[in-house]
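Record 1 of the preview.
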Amino acid sequence: MTTPTKKEMKKYKDYLKREAKKFKLTSEDLSNLYDFIYMIDDITFDTLKLNKMDKWLFNLQHRIEKVIIPELKAVKKI
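->
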């Protein structure tokens, strides 16, 4: 496998952005994804941390919680 060039990476990222705009989640998808985040065990979390994806997971969890639990939107940070 060869390393992609900057041009190829830009083309791929543009493709992902176009596809992400088409991507829709159902209410069941959101609910299951929220539950799934809490099912991650220590070994899986260690792997995410090793790959520097732990902050991404926390951010995803927070964004999903805002949708799943609307009361969180009303809470303002001081």
